[in-house]
């Protein structure tokens, strides 16, 4: 079992894939009701991805402030939780994943039906160092595929993710949306205020994008003042909802440089698989066309591809994003 676990987690350096592998194998190996992976974010913040006994992967919405999980996370973030611990009832295991000075993740394994047996605790201890090595490799890879200026992913990684989304559609029928975005009149900003101000605008727009999407969605700096966004499990209406949220957020933002207030806007083109197209090449082409229309139509607007596939003509989609989807996007 240890060999199987190590062999599986050593197959990828992609953080999202690694999370899925760890969640799947830990859940199966420990016969767990639920497995959490807590991942650190900036300034003491964190996010949690959960795998339930049903096999569903979902973000945990909220934690009870005085609950065992919240207390454990707080101790872990402050550096007080350094070794594997088990709850008094022996139904929850807390395993900090660290490499050197890097706090990589906190693995929480939960079984409400019976206490964990000693051999399972020994198993988790045996594989903990290998999990740490895998997460450290994934962390370094994530640095390599991240744009230094904006914190978004690079264009090279974008092509990998787009092909992966296409493969998921071909295999599982999972729809996805592509947003192509361009800051309006960015050259004028650079020429008027300088490239330092332009860099601040790029950072602010990237922050607006990241604040407007879910954990499962992926944002990229496509080049210069252009950005792209892949929205998983999202159709036409969901894509438009997120795009408008980003557009409004950017329009409301500002950057101050040498007592000068800089305002800016963004234009967005959207294409969706399978509603608009069925291949990656066509998806990019249609999103780019929609972006061009947005620019030519006055800028600071969202335009959806007008192309409709035969499959989409026979499918009805809800007229709006569900309340739960909106809540997840807002979070």
Could you explain the architecture of this structure?
The protein is built from eleven helices and 13 strands. With 331 residues, the chain is α+β, with helices and mostly antiparallel strands. A hairpin with a 4-residue loop joins strand 2 and strand 3. Helix 6 crosses helix 7. The radius of gyration is 22 Å and the shape is globular.
Concise synopsis of the structure shown:
It contains eleven helices and 13 strands.
Describe the protein's topology.
Layout: H1 2-9, H2 15-29, E1 34-40, E2 46-52, E3 57-59, H3 68-77, E4 85-86, E5 92-99, E6 102-110, H4 118-144, H5 155-172, E7 176-183, H6 186-193, H7 195-211, E8 218-223, E9 226-232, H8 236-252, E10 255-257, E11 260-262, E12 266-273, H9 280-296, E13 302-304, H10 310-313, H11 323-330
Helix pairs in contact: 1-4, 2-4, 6-7
Keywords:
331 residues; alpha+beta; 6-stranded antiparallel β-sheet; 5-stranded mixed β-sheet; 11 helices; 45% helix; globular; disordered C terminus
Average residue-wise pLDDT: 86
The strands making up the biggest β-sheet line up spatially as 3-2-1-6-5-4
Could you estimate the helical fraction of the residues in percent? Answer: 40-55%
Our count of helices gives 11
């Amino acid at each position: 079992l240890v060999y199987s676990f190590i062999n599986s987690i050593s197959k990828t350096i992609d953080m999202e894939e690694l999370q899925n592998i760890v969640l799947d194998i830990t859940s199966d190996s420990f016969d767990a009701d639920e497995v959490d992976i807590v991942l650190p974010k900036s300034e003491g913040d964190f996010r949690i991805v959960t795998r339930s006994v049903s096999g569903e992967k979902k973000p945990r919405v909220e934690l009870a402030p005085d609950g065992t999980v919240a207390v454990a996370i707080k101790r872990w973030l402050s550096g007080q939780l350094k070794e594997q611990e088990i709850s008094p009832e022996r139904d929850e295991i807390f395993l900090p994943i660290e490499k050197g000075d890097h706090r990589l993740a906190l693995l929480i394994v939960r079984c409400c039906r019976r206490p964990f047996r000693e051999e399972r605790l020994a198993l988790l201890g045996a594989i903990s160092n290998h999990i740490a090595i895998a997460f450290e490799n994934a962390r370094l890879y994530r640095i390599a595929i991240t744009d230094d200026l904006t914190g978004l992913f690079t264009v090279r990684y974008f092509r990998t993710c787009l092909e992966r989304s296409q493969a998921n559609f071909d295999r599982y029928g999972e729809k996805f949306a592509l947003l192509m975005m361009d800051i309006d009149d960015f050259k004028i900003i650079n020429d008027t205020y300088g490239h330092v101000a332009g860099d601040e605008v790029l950072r602010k727009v990237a922050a607006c994008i990241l604040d407007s999407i879910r954990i499962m969605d992926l944002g990229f700096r496509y080049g210069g003042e252009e950005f792209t966004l892949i929205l998983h499990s999202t159709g036409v209406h969901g894509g438009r909802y997120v795009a408008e949220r980003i557009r409004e957020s950017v329009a409301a933002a500002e950057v101050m440089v040498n007592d000068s207030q800089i305002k800016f806007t963004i234009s967005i083109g959207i294409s969706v698989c399978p509603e608009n197209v069925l291949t990656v090449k066509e998806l990019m082409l249609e999103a780019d066309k929609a972006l061009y229309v947005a620019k030519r139509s006055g800028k600071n607007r969202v335009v959806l591809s007008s192309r409709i596939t035969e499959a989409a003509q026979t499918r009805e989609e809800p007229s709006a994003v569900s309340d739960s989807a909106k809540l997840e996007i807002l979070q």
